[in-house]
Amino acid sequence: MKLYCLSGHPTLPCNVLKFKSTTIMLDCGLDTTSVLNFLPLPLVHSPRLSKLTGWTSKDGTVNLEKELKECAGRVFVDSQPEFCLPERELLDLSTIDVILISNYHCMMALPYITEHTGFTGTVYATEPTLQIGRLLMEELVNFMERVPKAQSATCWKNKDLQRVLPGPLKEAVDVWTWKRCYSMHEVNSALSKVQLVGYSQKVELFGAVQVSPLSSGYSLGSSNWIIQSHHEKVSYVSGSSLLTTHPQPMDQSSLKNSDVLILTGLTQMPTANPDGMLGEFCSNLAMTIRAGGNVLVPCYSSGVIYDLLECLYQFIESANLGTTPFYFISPVANSSLEFSQIFAEWLCHNKQTKVYLPEPPFPHAELIQTNKLKHYPSIHGDFSSEFRQPCVVFTGHPSLRFGDVVHFMELWGKSSLNTVIFTEPDFSYLDALAPYQPLAMKCVYCPIDTRLNFHQVSKLLKEVQPLHVVCPEQYTQPPLSQSHRSDLMLELTPPPMPYRRCSVLNLPFRRRYDVLLTPISESSSWFM
Amino acid sequence: MPEIKVTPLGAGQDVGRSCILVSIGGKNIMLDCGMHMGYNDDRRFPDFSYVTQNGRLTDFLDCVIISHFHLDHCGALPYMSEMVGYDGPIYMTHPTKAICPILLEDFRKITVDKKGETNFFTSQMIKDCMKKVVPLNLHQTVQVDDELEIKAYYAGHVLGAAMVQIKVGSESVVYTGDYNMTPDRHLGAAWIDKCRPDILISESTYATTIRDSKRCRERDFLKKVHESIERGGKVLIPVFALGRAQELCILLETFWERMNLKAPIYFSTGLTEKANHYYKLFITWTNQKIRKTFVQRNMFEFKHIKAFDRSYADNPGPMVVFATPGMLHAGQSLQIFKKWAGNEKNMVIMPGYCVQGTIGHKILNGQRKLEMEGRATLDVKLQVEYMSFSAHADAKGIMQLIRMAEPRNMLLVHGEAAKMEFLKGKIEQEFSIDCYMPANGETAMVTTNPSVPVDMSLNLLKREMALGGPLPDPKKPRTMHGTLIMKENSLKLVSSEQALKELGLNEHQLRFTCRVQLQDPHSDPDTLHRVYTHLKSVLKGYTIQHLPDGTVMVESIVIKVSSSAEDVNAKVLLLSWSYQDEDLGSFLSSLLKKGLPPGLC
């Protein structure tokens, strides 16, 4: 039994498990941090961005001024942003039988795998994961396609040239495998291969293996997976949460008695308490509005935004923000808000009880009804005429490289009255802001990551007692910036088996029995 | 041999008060707990004294499963759990859990407040009962206890309706509840995988009907409503608040839109808006088309359909009114019916099945004079139309479900005996499986043939595989030797050495010995050598050794020679083999009894 590790990103995993002659891909995460190396895609012509100087090496031997631009001492690629795909050379991806998806953030590389590798298998996901995953992909495609770039830069990827490039570009890995975004056609074709599953549903694969998704408490429809035969059990833990937010609570007890537990998707902000961050978010927002400034919240269109809106619903009146307009701008804003209301089965108990009344489970329905929250597909159209300031704008993409957020950064960046509040933990906010420097606007960093922290996970592991734990190597040592914090790593006996991109691990199993099925019949001669 | 027992307490050769007891693998399950619309006395609820004469049901039932929110499937639930007494789990889907208490409360109000009955369940009892409900998700495998698991499948019929699979070990039963095999304007079609249950318990409301296409029926319905409106009549459509009502509303709404009609459409009771809210929030349970477009346009927001007020019934001019309940047995639909029955311009359209004893059933059977309470009689002059819009599977649909699930036995409930009999014949003929149709209180027993899983030690498996040559043939059965250990409810097959070790036993050897007399005028060693050469030529592929201590070994079988005391030419061959080598040993003894061939040196 082997595990092939195709992604080195601990929260956007992509692993392949060979188990009892089936080949199972666990998640299909797309590492989007690569886009930070690119210039933002403005929705309207930006004189500032177009005036940036091109880059040539100091000795003048390398001239890439058409492809690379300098901004505030950093160099960016002037091309459509590209993504770092899961490794495709480690094994033949056409042999994959099934792909198990754990949550909608971990499926963004799906079209690259299902459409271009000869994949003929089935993808398993829950209904909310499929529907919201579709929205996020649709949004990504829309962000890219509505501002087409005439040129696409390729020279800088040349291995000899990359070596002389400055800064993060020089260290970027596998840049020649980076790919542009997929098309809507590819998304539809990829998602047509998805078969829906419910929590605790037992899915038989070729009679040899049984897989079953469990509630993981992280997002709508998010799941961990049990992969088992009669005598071996592998648990795959992806983004999970023990906090009480909107999704159904995490099912912990079903993870018990695993031979191997593959642990991914822990919090990226182990030192930031989500509740504290939420408080800081609200107070910074109120302060800026009272001072007459605007608030920009770069975010994904689903997930934590539902909790932010719920928190604001309670906060608005007490903070006297009743007249401040809140805008949610995304090509899928409306769909995301509507979809969130129809997944009663996948929500926490409190929200389910509301549906029984029958009332919408999320209070953003009331915010919309009372006109406090308005949503628009983009800054063009109705929004431009209805838009009032000061206001609060929720919009994507959190990398600040594409989407409507680019426009607001350009619009509000010059005034110190305005504030940008980062809530998504996926991107370093300093890197995200780099191409907008110099910036007068205030920047507040309140990353809200509800996934398991090291304290919670060690308690969980003590309870479910797997024989072996496999995890990304990042979890076996403290973060680089806090090397003295030995509490920010996994300490287990036996020690966890670490993996990195391109690792192939032999999983330890001690199997002693197999199962026979014996029919009872009257003429049975078992006992002679 | 294990048996599965099925006993209907209600819905056995009847429609109404569905309640079916199933005993499988030592577990007892109650499927549905409904009331009968045709009775107002004790017969309206199932007879729970069948389960136990005195005391609570908790000790006798492992779980109760409710298939959908119609009162003939859940109407007796608070009575059963709170008045008879049951504290175990009650399973139903989320929409059923949401809607069922509202209908129960409605039922209670009509019975207690309007008819003045006492000794009926209270609002608090409904609440307490609902606290015992565990929600079910589609396709989720719910472990009721270590052995009993249940799984829900989509059934169409009404919002949240489910079919359930009940499984203990490898034995299983599927109960369909009410289902619909064709998608309609707001719900999808029932679906199940090829789960091969031991028994498929199916409803059979339309056992003998094969309905024409839905489109024709819809056109017919619209034509009748339209004609009646055109000549200034009033149209009453008795419905239940949830289900057909929404489908017919969608139908009329689009028709009014297209034809630009002005006559008002009303929907009675405050339930309407609430009902439509449930459809909006549980949109994942509706059909694909509605689910796909709900963000742009929610099909359950009606423009032409308004709330009804009691005073509107006397308004002049044409109108269409949807009123509850659907069988004209009580409530608003009955009140309006009484008002409008005398005018032949008016029309009542019965869109679904009516249970015997209800006014709906009577007028559908052509009765034109009705006896009302207080000896008054009512002359029925208005037009009575019947349109089968109730979402039950017809004969074709039932056969289709059998093909999908491939059951080993079939059991029919929720239908009329004569019609069941006909369908039973068809099923037995087409699928060559047994079909049962027990009446209420009658038990159907089905013998099952479950497989028993045995854990086999890998070492033993490998050893035994090696004996049969390198490539095992999966098509041929193989004999294996091992020791079966039954311990703590599990079966293990291990090698005998391991079994001895695990159980702390000493090994006892069992040996057979046998004397074979031969006439062979040679010396003992020569005879032995002759035996050796003979066996060598006969037994190819066996290890045969001539040992220096004066024995011949064939595999582990020992052969020695001794001379007879009386006759020098007579020799005695001594054979000894262990019990495990019985086959070879007895073969050798019979071979040697035939003597040695001459000409051997």
From TrEMBL, chain A:
<dbReference type="InterPro" id="IPR022712">
    <property type="entry name" value="Beta_Casp"/>
</dbReference>
<dbReference type="InterPro" id="IPR036866">
    <property type="entry name" value="RibonucZ/Hydroxyglut_hydro"/>
</dbReference>
<keyword id="KW-0963">Cytoplasm</keyword>
<keyword id="KW-0539">Nucleus</keyword>
<dbReference type="GO" id="GO:0032039">
    <property type="term" value="C:integrator complex"/>
</dbReference>
<dbReference type="GO" id="GO:0005829">
    <property type="term" value="C:cytosol"/>
</dbReference>
<dbReference type="Pfam" id="PF16661">
    <property type="entry name" value="Lactamase_B_6"/>
</dbReference>
<comment type="similarity">
    <text>Belongs to the metallo-beta-lactamase superfamily. RNA-metabolizing metallo-beta-lactamase-like family. INTS9 subfamily.</text>
</comment>
<dbReference type="GO" id="GO:0090101">
    <property type="term" value="P:negative regulation of transmembrane receptor protein serine/threonine kinase signaling pathway"/>
</dbReference>
<feature type="domain" description="Beta-Casp">
    <location>
        <begin position="305"/>
        <end position="433"/>
    </location>
</feature>
<dbReference type="GO" id="GO:0034472">
    <property type="term" value="P:snRNA 3'-end processing"/>
</dbReference>
<dbReference type="InterPro" id="IPR027074">
    <property type="entry name" value="Integrator_9su"/>
</dbReference>
<dbReference type="GO" id="GO:0090287">
    <property type="term" value="P:regulation of cellular response to growth factor stimulus"/>
</dbReference>
<dbReference type="Pfam" id="PF10996">
    <property type="entry name" value="Beta-Casp"/>
</dbReference>
<dbReference type="GO" id="GO:0160232">
    <property type="term" value="C:INTAC complex"/>
</dbReference>
<dbReference type="InterPro" id="IPR001279">
    <property type="entry name" value="Metallo-B-lactamas"/>
</dbReference>
<protein>
    <recommendedName>
        <fullName>Integrator complex subunit 9</fullName>
    </recommendedName>
</protein>
<dbReference type="GO" id="GO:0160240">
    <property type="term" value="P:RNA polymerase II transcription initiation surveillance"/>
</dbReference>
Automatic annotation (TrEMBL), chain B:
<keyword id="KW-0378">Hydrolase</keyword>
<dbReference type="InterPro" id="IPR011108">
    <property type="entry name" value="RMMBL"/>
</dbReference>
<dbReference type="GO" id="GO:0046872">
    <property type="term" value="F:metal ion binding"/>
</dbReference>
<keyword id="KW-0963">Cytoplasm</keyword>
<dbReference type="Pfam" id="PF10996">
    <property type="entry name" value="Beta-Casp"/>
</dbReference>
<keyword id="KW-0539">Nucleus</keyword>
<dbReference type="InterPro" id="IPR041897">
    <property type="entry name" value="INTS11-like_MBL-fold"/>
</dbReference>
<protein>
    <recommendedName>
        <fullName>Integrator complex subunit 11</fullName>
    </recommendedName>
</protein>
<dbReference type="GO" id="GO:0005634">
    <property type="term" value="C:nucleus"/>
</dbReference>
<dbReference type="GO" id="GO:0004521">
    <property type="term" value="F:RNA endonuclease activity"/>
</dbReference>
<dbReference type="InterPro" id="IPR036866">
    <property type="entry name" value="RibonucZ/Hydroxyglut_hydro"/>
</dbReference>
<dbReference type="Pfam" id="PF16661">
    <property type="entry name" value="Lactamase_B_6"/>
</dbReference>
<feature type="domain" description="Beta-Casp">
    <location>
        <begin position="245"/>
        <end position="363"/>
    </location>
</feature>
<keyword id="KW-0479">Metal-binding</keyword>
<dbReference type="GO" id="GO:0005737">
    <property type="term" value="C:cytoplasm"/>
</dbReference>
<dbReference type="Pfam" id="PF21386">
    <property type="entry name" value="IntS11_C"/>
</dbReference>
<dbReference type="GO" id="GO:0016787">
    <property type="term" value="F:hydrolase activity"/>
</dbReference>
<feature type="domain" description="Metallo-beta-lactamase">
    <location>
        <begin position="16"/>
        <end position="229"/>
    </location>
</feature>
<dbReference type="InterPro" id="IPR022712">
    <property type="entry name" value="Beta_Casp"/>
</dbReference>
<dbReference type="InterPro" id="IPR050698">
    <property type="entry name" value="MBL"/>
</dbReference>
<dbReference type="GO" id="GO:0016180">
    <property type="term" value="P:snRNA processing"/>
</dbReference>
<comment type="similarity">
    <text>Belongs to the metallo-beta-lactamase superfamily. RNA-metabolizing metallo-beta-lactamase-like family. INTS11 subfamily.</text>
</comment>
